[in-house]
Amino acid sequence: MGYDIGWIIPRLRNPGRLWYCASSITVAVVGLFSKIIIEFLNKTTVYNREALTAAVRRPRGTPLLTVSNHHSCFDDPGLWGVLNMGTLTSRARMRWSLAAHDICFTNALHSCFFALGKCVPVVRGAGVYQPAMDFCVERLSRGEWVHIFPEGRVNVNKEHIRFKWGVGRLVAECGAAPLIVPVWHEGLDAVLPNTEPYLLKFRKHVFLNVGEPIQIHHLLDKLRSANASEEETRKAITDRIQEELLRLRDHTHKLIRRAGADLLRPRARERDPPPPRDTDRDL
């Protein structure tokens, strides 16, 4: 039996003053660490940085959902090392992020650290209706920022993985249509390889491409007009986000080749995603 994570989400919902202070320190320290790794000890090229900056500085009360590919265990927090210091050190402005319970929340020490860093333990395979997803819907509805890796796991082989429908639920059940910003990155798996001894590397080149916000309002209106079921709604939203993120991937690869970087290794042969089965059990 794994470590009992039942206390984490209630604590995240009702953080005491001591917890809030400890969380603020954790967010700031991890943010500064990420910036040192990404911008000082490695080289990072960011395309369309202003789109990410504008999203983080969105009007108060506007929910923000960022989605990205997942190539390394350093993707989060590494991705956010490109943000300014004011954002990185602000607990109120930084993201909530879904993290695998069987990797990040395996004992009391790890659980405290990741929970203080605004990570939410998601149980893979437990479906779209689980406490972590409920919590993230609540955060979005309050106008906060949530980040999700729709592939649902570290995609070590960079193959085609059908996105999990959890991202569709976050959008569908948010109180107001969130600002959805896609991000594609390459090179973070060179900074933290997916092989032992899992040590950070330096003097690598990372590319980060921020897409324009995904326009979802017309799709939501169409689904409501058609009286679509919850499953149909989740699938349609997820398909749209996957389509936009993969389009951003192709654009990113063109930019990397244009820059002359020897970074893109041959990817596994892409194939169409299999038809959905009972995806509510497949978050």
Automatic annotation (TrEMBL):
> Pfam families per the record?
Acyltransferase (PF01553)
The reactions it catalyses are: 1'-[1,2-diacyl-sn-glycero-3-phospho],3'-[1-acyl-sn-glycero-3-phospho]-glycerol + a 1,2-diacyl-sn-glycero-3-phosphocholine = a cardiolipin + a 1-acyl-sn-glycero-3-phosphocholine; 1,2-di-(9Z-octadecenoyl)-sn-glycero-3-phosphocholine + 1-hexadecanoyl-sn-glycero-3-phosphocholine = 1-hexadecanoyl-2-(9Z-octadecenoyl)-sn-glycero-3-phosphocholine + 1-(9Z-octadecenoyl)-sn-glycero-3-phosphocholine
Q: Does the keyword Lyase apply?
A: no
State the UniProt keywords alphabetically: Acyltransferase, Lipid metabolism, Membrane, Mitochondrion, Mitochondrion inner membrane, Mitochondrion outer membrane, Transferase
Membrane topology listed for this record: Peripheral membrane protein
Q: Which GO terms describe its molecular function?
A: 1-acylglycerophosphocholine O-acyltransferase activity
* Region (Disordered) residue spans: 262-283
Q: Where is the Phospholipid/glycerol acyltransferase domain?
A: 64-188
Q: Which InterPro entries match?
A: Plipid/glycerol_acylTrfase, Tafazzin
Q: Which SUPFAM superfamilies match?
A: Glycerol-3-phosphate (1)-acyltransferase
GO BP annotation list: cardiolipin acyl-chain remodeling; inner mitochondrial membrane organization
Q: Which family does it belong to?
A: Belongs to the taffazin family.
Q: Write down what this protein is called.
A: Tafazzin family protein
